Amino acid sequence: MAQLIDGKVLSAQIREEVKEAVSIRVKAGKRAPFLTVVLIGEDPASASYVKGKAKATAEVGIGSDTLVYDASISEKEVLEIIERLNNDPDIDGILVQLPLPAHIDERKVINAIAPAKDVDCFHPESVGNLVIGNDGFQPATPAGIVEMLQRCNIPTAGKHCVIIGRSNIVGKPLANLMLKKGIDATVTVCHSRTKNLPEIARQADILVAAIGRANFVTGDMVKEGAVVIDVGINRIDDASRERGYRLVGDVDFEAASKKASHITPVPGGVGPMTIAVLLQNTLKAADQK
Q1: In terms of Cα–Cα distance, which of 226, 228, 231, 208 is closest to 162?
Q2: Contact 44/14 with Cβ under 8 angstroms?
Q3: Is 97 a catalytic residue?
Q4: pLDDT for 59-85, tens place per residue?
Q5: Are strands 234-237 and 245-248 parallel, antiparallel or unpaired?
Q6: Which domains does the chain have, with CATH numbers?
Q7: How would you label 248-260 residue by residue, b for 16+ Cβ within 10 Å and e otherwise?
Q8: In this structure, are residues 251 and 215 in contact, taking their beta carbons and an 8 Å threshold?
Q9: 172 given a catalytic annotation
Q10: Residue 218 pLDDT more than 90?
């Protein structure tokens, strides 16, 4: 049976480290780092994520506020808000919660955020730094995955990492992180058009599922002894639950855990690590000034 990689425990370690660093910073006479989150519309999932981020920043001593706007706000107004936040010296990090309403161009909004405040690591300059290996902000979910592997002492050098999913949020940036010197994995990125995907998945020493399809990775796609990282969060109907649904990942946990050496649960795996890295990035943004 696989050993569980507990994201709650590992993220708590990171939060404690950030809390200590913020405390040292404040004792030295500097102000606490400050994060501003922009939330547009009333998407329940987005509101829940933002609430979690606000709680996490408060726990480690990072200041934060959430600017909430109606879904009818114009793209021009959003860009003006971003410009104002860019020019505010007391704001270290800016995070625009995605997705945005259909009439607002996400790419324009992301591009408008000053790279020095881009704690989500979505700006083209941030992505470019990641690709060429420059020091900069780490993309939250991919960096959280790398932190998991390192803190669990899971070897990565020379290992074959197969990533199922090519999104700009997880798949592509994770591939670049796993290729970095010091991580040194050999990386294969699979997607919906990949031929013989199960066969490729079975070659993975480290298998990452980030395709957004419930229980997509079955037990027969997992090599004996592989490390399985499940990024997916999917709702499936479950009449036995009070809410009428339950959360599952992109991996058939029960089947995969019988073959894997390590595996992340859903929930409680990668999710908590994402917010922990966001806190690291906000601290880094403040320290760069």
Answers
A1: 208
A2: no
A3: yes
A4: 999 999 999 999 999 999 999 999 999
A5: antiparallel
A6: 29-114 (3.40.50.10860), 140-271 (3.40.50.720)
A7: bbbbbbebbbebb
A8: yes
A9: no
A10: yes
Which position among 92, 118, 120, 205 bears the catalytic label?
Answer: 120
**Which candidate, 32, 52, 44, 46, places its Cα nearest to that of 96?**
46
Give Cα 233 to chain centroid, integer Å.
12
Kindly indicate the confidence band of residue 237, based on its pLDDT and cuts at 50, 70 and 90.
confident
- Is 120 a catalytic site residue? yes
- Both tokens of 24, joined, read 């040292």
pTM over 0.85: yes
Q: CA–CA separation, 231 vs 164, rounded Å?
A: 10
| Widest CA span in the chain | 58
Q: Which amino acid is at 263?
A: I
Look at residue 49 and tell me whether its pLDDT is greater than 90: no
Phi, psi at 186, each rounded to 5°? -95, 125
Active-site entry in 97, 172, 250, 284: 97
> In one letter, which amino acid is 19?
K
